[in-house]
Amino acid sequence: MSQPLDLDFVRAQFPAFAEPSLDGQAFFENAGGSYTCAPVIERLERYYRQRKVQPYGPFAASRLAGEEMDEARNRLAAMLGVAADELSFGPSTTQNTYVLARAFAQWMRPGDAIVVTDQDHEANSGPWRRLADEGFEIREWKIDPDTGHLEPEDLEPLLDDRVRLVCFPHCSNVVGEVNPVVEITELAHAAGAFVCVDGVSYAPHGFVDVGALGADIYLFSAYKTYGPHQGLMVIRRELGMQLPNQGHFFNQGSLYKRFTPAGPDHAQIAACAGMADYIDALAAHHGIDGAPVERAGGVHDLMRAHEDALLQPLLDHLGDRNSVRLLGPQAANGRAPTVAVALDQPGAQAAAALAERGIMAGGGDFYAVRALRAMGVVPSEGVLRMSFVHYTSQAEIDRLLEALDDIL
């Protein structure tokens, strides 16, 4: 790596840091949605001002609208290491997963099985679990109740020739541990199953080479990766063209249209190209060259190195407290900077106390009800969750540690 992350340059790309209404507050609820980078805001505003017409028509505004939508798909797919038509946009990751579940329900035969985990956000669990009502078997890959860890060896007994799909998170939004996607995918593929990876909680920490991971489906949300409220879904061609078309019948030959039954949000798709602008700007500023997937990989490594350096002191601070149960690993290496703790008070109450001290954090179950129950945490009490990304500063971490000392 040529140099550490230039935090001043990074923060200059986010208008939120110059916003008077946010001045004096430190943002630690990034797992619920990140600040939006300037290129996305600029593209969205331009689209609404200059291109807000039906795209792909013969007149200039329409032609430019369509070109900007195509630009977003092409550039982001290249950064993810997949073909352009293997990336599609939907209104949210939850909706994309629901559409996928409907396609699998039509494709599978009664008695076929799907493996899910109890580490997931409900969006990557509930749609698959509901297929049990239609005659399909749902097998649960369970986490360790003490650590929240998913052990790949525990998956193997669940795999046989009836399993069609294995669904799991790249990392949990409350446990934070980064799961070994390549290893898990190889196990599933060896058993003849496809793999669906929920990347929502990992993607904010850097775009990954989905092609190298081997996942057949990879989902994440643009509003957590510095963009608008869209769900991005990679579905590899081998699988995508097998599943029944969920879009208009005349679009069944187009892979990126097969799983988007609703009309796309043209402006937000076009604005997603701003996410690629941002990654490219970071790469250029830090001297990272190469193909799009290589530039994105270099930026990913910059982000993760910065996050790890800030994360370990927070984990140490919380791990030393007897009154706090830290969920997930206590080492920064191998986990995302999404830190959930169970306290002797409701998580929402602790978050409110932090808010009084200028710390924006979250409290609740975060749609990870199954994971919390599995670890013995009462969902109605919830957890305090503190989550940050690469634009977080050491000064903000110091403020958080001081505020935690006050409330704990």
Protein model, in words:
- There is one protein chain.
- The chain has 408 residues and is α/β, with parallel strands linked by helices.
- It is built from 15 helices and 13 strands.
- The chain has two domains: 144 residues, Aspartate Aminotransferase, domain 1 (Alpha-Beta Complex), CATH 3.90.1150.10; 178 residues, Aspartate Aminotransferase, domain 2, CATH 3.40.640.
- Helix content is 39%, strand content 13%.
- A seven-stranded mixed sheet has the order 2-8-7-6-5-3-4, sandwiched between helices.
- Helix 11 crosses helix 12.
> Strand count, sense and closure of the main sheet?
7 strands, mixed
Q: Report, as a whole number of angstroms, the end-to-end distance.
A: 38 Å
What share of residues are in beta strands?
5-15%
- Report the principal-axis shape: globular
Number of alpha- plus pi-helical segments: 15
Strand segment count: 13
Organism: Roseovarius spongiae
Keywords: Aminotransferase, Pyridoxal phosphate, Transferase
InterPro entries: Aminotrans_V_dom, PyrdxlP-dep_Trfase, PyrdxlP-dep_Trfase_major, PyrdxlP-dep_Trfase_small
Protein name: Aminotransferase class V-fold PLP-dependent enzyme
Give the structure's gist in a few sentences.
By secondary structure, the chain is of the alpha/beta class. Helix content is 39%, strand content 13%.
